[in-house]
Amino acid sequence: MTWYRSLFFKIFLWFWLVVFLAMGLAVITSEWLDDDYFVPASRQDVMLVLDLIERRPPILAEGRKLWRHLQPGWNLVSVQVDSVDELPHDLEEFADQAVEQGELLYGQNDGWLMIGPVQSGDYLYIAVSRRDWQHLLDDRQRWVLPLLILVLVTSLCFLLVWSLTRPIRRLQQAVRQMADGNFDVSLLQRDLSRRDEIGELVVEVMSMAEATRRLLQSQQQLLRDVSHELRSPLTRLQIALGIARKKDQAGIVSNEHDRIERAVAQVDSLISQILDLARLSQLDDTSLLREQEPADLMLQNWLEDAELEIANKQLQLQVQNHAGQLDANWDWVLMERAVDNILRNAIRFAPEGSTLKVQLERRDDGQILITIADQGPGVPEDMLDTIFAPFMQVDQTRSPGANSGGYGLGLALVKRIIELHGGTVQARNLGPGLEVALTLPAGLSHS
């Protein structure tokens, strides 16, 4: 990148030019505003003087003392025709100029506005004011120029800020998408043509997104391949175990067979979860088998399935359902798996005799909220977001020494299922306890 394309140089040059332009225009404007001028008076100007002659008593000219008698707005100054030299120098010069040109004038002299002179009898009348100018880019309208300079400088600065912040906002949006697992950063294509630091950053971010996407795809493919490859020997091992049990009619090594069977079941469960997570990662919301059912009734069925575990730990179940039927259009097989996973975790880590709270409600924005809260030890604050990542073991952090038999895939499956339904999952500590909240759109179509 050449030095004149750098962002530093652009910002420096832009501000330097703006400041230089503002200073130059300020000097020019100051000189222009101070310039004296005389132009032919318009009909409106003449009518103003005649109206002042009829309505207002004149102020007699007394040399420089005249200025102290002037009031804000237009004043009417009079002097005898043969005593023009009694006028202050500014007015005398104005009157002489009008006589030379043979017409009534409108003009400025040392900051004073003047119209005239109009002769009536033996007197000359001149309208005098200290009032500001009123029109645009005319000698009478010069006050607008500083305003135009302000607008110009403000516009230039706004364009600079806009040109810098727009690509930065797009970068921010792209990075946020990547954090959510969406590596489509095509919105940055329009900034590839830039030849400054922002353009280089866009190239790096797009390269990083593509490399991360390939890495994740390779990881998922590796997990799928390994899982499939393990299925064949695992099946053969299960068959061999069955044959060994038949041969051991006396049950001499039945304990060893039981341990082998438990180990095989654990490996089989791990492989199944890995394959399920890989399968869900490739699905989108159009792949869901949606059915419209009452969410409160389905939740009640899932809680009944867990009654045995709840009773074994003597937990007090508190259920707060939405008033009335709450319909939802979800993939109920997947939703049952998500809720059941969270529910089983809550039961596992809840102390015996404690309270387990389950709530179902419709929020003000129309989305459905399902919360499950236990009174266990909770999760360290810095892990509340990471517990939903694959293979993240939360058991030791929540309850040291607990034997959950999990592999850190359950909550990852929950997150993916909820995301497929267009929802979010969040966890927060209650002190004591952990609350997991599932927020999903009802998914109902309204005609």
Give a description of the structure.
- The chain is an alpha+beta fold.
- It folds into three domains: 108 residues, no CATH class; 56 residues; 155 residues, Heat Shock Protein 90, CATH 3.30.565.
- 49% of the residues lie in helices and 16% in strands.
- The chain starts with 6 loop residues before the first helix and ends in a 7-residue tail after the last strand.
- GO terms for molecular function: ATP binding; phosphorelay sensor kinase activity.
- It catalyses: ATP + protein L-histidine = ADP + protein N-phospho-L-histidine.
Question: Topology of this structure?
Answer:
Elements: H1 7-34, E1 37-40, H2 43-55, E2 59-60, E3 75-80, H3 89-101, E4 105-109, E5 112-120, E6 123-129, H4 144-179, H5 197-247, H6 254-282, E7 291-294, H7 295-305, H8 307-312, E8 316-320, E9 327-330, H9 332-349, E10 355-362, E11 368-373, H10 395-398, H11 410-420, E12 424-429, E13 434-440
Parallel strand pairs: 2-3, 8-10
Antiparallel strand pairs: 1-4, 3-6, 4-5, 5-6, 7-9, 10-11, 11-13, 12-13
Helix pairs in contact: 1-4, 4-5, 5-6, 6-11, 7-9, 9-11
Subcellular location: Cell membrane
Catalytic activity: ATP + protein L-histidine = ADP + protein N-phospho-L-histidine
Transmembrane segments: 7-28, 143-164
What is this entry, summarized?
The protein is of the alpha+beta class and 447 residues long. Helix content is 49%, strand content 16%.
Question: Stretches where pLDDT falls below 50 for ≥5 residues?
Answer: 133-139
Kindly report the CATH topology of the largest domain: Heat Shock Protein 90
Number of domains: 3
Could you state the order of secondary-structure elements as H and E?
HEHEEHEEEHHHEHHEEHEEHHEE
What is the arithmetic mean of pLDDT? 80
Shape: elongated
With strands numbered from the N-terminus, the spatial order across the biggest sheet is 1-4-5-6-3-2
Let me know the largest β-sheet: 6 strands, mixed
Gap from first CA to last CA: 56 Å
Task: Please name the CATH architecture of the largest domain.
Answer: 2-Layer Sandwich
Number of helices: 11
- Find the CATH superfamily of the largest domain: Histidine kinase-like ATPase, C-terminal domain
> Which class best fits the helix and strand makeup?
alpha+beta
Strand content: 15-25%
Please bin the fraction of helical residues: 40-55%
Radius of gyration: 43 Å
CATH class of the largest domain: Alpha Beta
Overall number of strands: 13
